[in-house]
Write a structure and sequence with these properties.
The complex is a heterodimer of chains A (313) and B (442). Chain A has 313 residues and is mainly alpha-helical. Chain A has helices spanning 30-57, 75-81, 84-116, 122-134, 137-148, 154-161, 176-204, 208-216, 221-232, 234-249, 253-259, 268-278, 282-307, and strands spanning 2-5, 11-14, 60-61, 70-71. A two-stranded antiparallel sheet of chain A has the order 1-2. In chain A, strands 3-4 form a two-stranded antiparallel ribbon. In chain A, strand 1 and strand 2 (11-14) form a beta hairpin. Chain B has 442 residues and is α/β, with parallel strands linked by helices. Chain B is built from 17 helices and 12 strands. The longest helix of chain B is centred in the N-terminal third of the chain and has 24 residues, at 4-27. Classes of the chains: A mainly alpha (313), B alpha/beta (442). At the A-B interface, helix 1, helix 5 and helix 12 of A face helix 1, helix 3, helix 4, helix 10 and helix 16 of B.
């Protein structure tokens, strides 16, 4: 006779020898449901219900200045794609995503690898690294205004002092790609700490004996990084990339503070704000929000399919 | 002993009740039923400005029995919250910001109580000229608590170094003087125009249009700036020419109004701003902590075609949202907040401990006069004269309901012209097309 733990968590006594398995009718246990219910309520009330409402309302004309709300099919979506400012902002947002996800992931990997090493002041460095992530986007925008500024900015001052430029340059607002790149650098500065920490967590899960084995096999540091580290941190990289996709697709503060409403840097979320809270056309705003949500899901799914590979140690 | 089953049921009941309470509290509208109580109540005042000193608010509480909870939110966020709360018919504040540019929308939307329900607004017209900026049809949706208007500032020391001692009164003289300042090497870029695509650029263009003797829209919202000989067209050309001819710093294509005032005018980088804000001399240029041009900047009547032009008002107002809990108490607060005595205190007439930080200028003429008499208002004579005789609403019939879209069309297209992405002609064409579309309601 042996003593074990039965499914229900209670000690049970089992007779030696084969015995026909009887399926016990499991009693409904409300405890797991109770434990997850607060979270479920929050998700349902604050995410699913508003999402459902947004989907429904995006097919209605909901204009505060032109009540009442009436069903208008896909007219809100048609209007969106006939608005030059919105179409231009979709292109801009695509660039924000491409630049932001690529840069933040690359830098996240570099920082994570550096932070993986043991050195004096590592904890302080982690604390400093996390600082930009903790700052509100508007505050960061204001800080970087003083760096990029074409009249009195820090970058101009440094470049002039180093004799790299003869006179002050205007960085923002003249060339669309440069404007978007510089604005996105500010967002990358904000989101990279989280990417680095996510990748660092994945790095710290890799057993040391894998590196020992690679070393014994004569692998160079680069080969070890490419063949051992990179494949094993793919889950961490995936999460980092997905959070970067979400952040960059919803970029608002940085372009708004650094470049105003100018078409050179306007993002889709900025247009959603203008349409919803300035024009008070909530129907079109709902439609635009829905597009951002769908785009977020699709791009995140693509990242997941391309980057994620299950890892078992 | 309580059985497991009973305990589970009890937990279920507690969690269920909590969930219902949570959902109910989240979904309920707090705006149901306003109270006319004015004693022993606490009202929420939400504005994009710092609160008055605690002692001042305590004095108000002592007088009325109303406690004030003050929240300072940045202007953009505040407008979003006002719109979101009003749309959801939810309580947000008892008194909050009414922006002059949204008066057209607010008049139609009915988000704010008509102030004539609570105050004798007709009697305020003569003492508060800028109340017109908050009037749409027969509704007064807010009361101006300051008298901000656009006015021209000049660094007289820099002008004097270029040999200019008589201030210009026409745009021709003004432009010529700016070139003199540049040619004399006093300032590399003497003129401050904020070309960032935001409200400050739109406002600057409206004021420059007034300087060229016109308005941007007629009473029906039709554009008045399409033809090359119109004031609005000339104003746009003058502004872009200023940038191209080196009067305006090249980096200004991304400089906002406040940024230009703080980093260029206040630091002596530029010598003049055609469309500056009343109150900036006292609150910015003559404050040693933020300025290197103390006692150098003066207000001048804005130059015009053949003499001084009109100045345009952009006052800050306060009103009562229709979902306020205590509208009567809020009205009492507004009466106190906009009274002559409070405005004198806020403007520093009775000592620094009663000052409202960054308060522009009293909205009551009597308070402006009293400050000027006491010598407590820098440039007071000029400001009082401009306020009485020159300041006009940007839109005398009230801002159109589509004003935010119009302003955005103005700022984005003028910015694009400044950045070299389009010509002035194309920018004006694009603004005209946008305005026609908005005015037609399509």
């Amino acid at each position: 006779m042996t003593v074990g733990i039965a499914t229900g968590g209670r000690p049970s006594v089992r007779e030696d020898g084969p015995r026909p398995v009887r399926r016990r009718k499991r009693k409904f246990d409300p405890l797991p449901w109770l434990l997850v219910s607060p979270l479920m309520i929050f998700i349902i009330a604050l995410a699913l219900v508003p999402a459902g409402f947004t989907i429904g309302a995006s097919f209605f004309r909901v204009q505060e200045l032109n009540p009442p709300a009436v069903f208008n099919g896909i007219q809100n979506f048609v209007k969106l794609f006939s608005d030059g400012a919105i179409v231009s902002s979709i292109g801009n947002t695509g660039l924000y995503v491409l630049i932001g996800v690529a840069l933040s992931t690359l830098l996240g990997i570099v920082f994570a690898v550096v932070l993986q090493q043991r050195f004096r002041g590592r904890s302080a460095l982690v604390a400093i690294l996390i600082l930009p992530w903790a700052l509100p986007g508007v505050v960061e925008g204001i800080v970087w205004v003083n760096i990029w500024d074409g009249n009195t900015g820090l970058l101009n001052s440094v470049l002039t002092s180093l004799h790299l430029i003869g006179h002050y340059q205007v960085f923002l607002g003249q060339n669309q790609f440069v404007t978007i790149l510089l604005i996105e650098i500010v967002q990358v500065w904000q989101i990279t700490p989280l990417s680095a920490l996510l990748i660092l967590a994945a790095l710290q899960n890799i057993p040391g004996d894998l590196y020992e084995a690679a070393s014994l096999d004569g692998a160079s540091p680069w080969q070890t990084f490419r063949r051992v580290t990179m494949p094993l941190i793919r889950p961490g990289i995936t999460i980092a990339m997905v959070q970067a996709v979400i952040a960059t697709l919803n970029v608002f503060d940085q372009p708004y503070v650094l470049n105003g409403a100018a078409a050179t840097g306007s993002s889709v979320t900025m247009q959603t704000y203008f349409v919803s809270f300035q024009s008070l056309d909530f129907g079109e705003g709902y439609a635009l929000s829905l597009l951002i949500t769908v785009a977020t899901l699709v791009v995140s799914f693509v990242v997941l399919k391309l980057v994620y590979r299950p890892v078992e140690f | 002993m309580i059985s497991t089953k009973k305990r589970a049921r009890a937990i279920t009941l507690v969690v269920g009740a909590a969930a219902v309470a949570l959902i109910a509290s989240g979904c309920s509208s707090a705006g149901s039923g306003a109270s006319s109580d004015t004693k022993g109540v606490t009202i929420n005042v939400v504005l994009a400005v710092d609160p008055p000193p605690k002692s001042e608010l305590a004095e108000f509480t002592k007088q009325t029995g109303i406690t004030v909870k003050w929240t300072n939110i940045d202007w953009d966020s505040l407008q979003t919250k006002i719109a979101a709360a009003a749309t959801a018919k939810t309580y947000f504040a008892d008194a909050t910001d009414v922006d002059w540019s949204r008066v057209g929308q607010l008049g139609k939307l009915g988000w704010f109580y008509p102030m004539q329900n609570y105050l004798n607004t007709k009697s305020l017209v003569s003492s508060m000229p800028q109340i017109n900026s908050f009037t749409v049809g027969n509704k007064v949706v807010g009361i101006p608590f300051d008298a901000s208007f656009t006015t021209t500032t000049v660094n007289k020391t820099m002008f004097a170094k270029a040999g200019i001692t008589t201030m210009p009164t026409t745009m021709t003289d003004y432009t010529s003087d700016l070139h003199k300042v540049k040619d004399a090497g006093v300032a590399q870029y003497p003129l401050n125009i904020p070309f960032a695509a935001s409200e400050g650029l739109s406002t600057y263009w409206y004021q420059t249009t007034a300087a060229f003797g016109g308005t941007v829209l007629d009473g029906k919202g039709k554009p008045q700036f399409s033809k090359p000989n119109s004031a609005g067209y000339k104003a746009a050309e003058w502004m872009i020419d200023g940038l191209k001819s080196g009067l305006v710093p090249p980096g200004n294509i991304n400089v906002t109004d406040s940024q230009g005032m703080q980093t260029l005018m206040a630091k002596g980088q530029t010598a003049s701003t055609l469309s500056d804000y009343s109150g900036n001399v006292g609150s910015l240029y003559d404050v040693p902590a933020s300025s290197s041009v103390v006692n150098q900047v003066i207000y001048i009547p804005t130059p015009g075609v053949s003499g001084p032009a009109h100045n345009l008002g952009n006052p800050d107002g306060i009103g009562i949202p229709v979902n306020a809990k205590y509208p009567k108490a809020a009205a009492k607060f507004i009466t106190w907040f906009t009274s002559e005595e409070s405005q004198l205190n806020f403007a520093g007439a009775n000592g620094p401990d009663k000052v409202l930080p960054s308060y522009a200028l009293p909205s009551r003429l009597s308070a402006v006069d009293a400050l000027t008499t006491k010598g407590k208002l820098l440039g007071g004579d000029t400001l009082a004269d401009l306020l009485k005789n020159s300041a006009r609403p940007v839109f005398p019939q009230g801002a159109p309901i589509w004003y935010p879209d119009f302003s955005r069309a103005v700022s984005t297209n003028l910015h694009a012209a400044a950045a070299g992405d389009m010509s002035v002609a194309d920018a004006i064409k694009a603004i005209t097309a946008a305005t026609d579309k908005l005015a037609s309601g399509s």
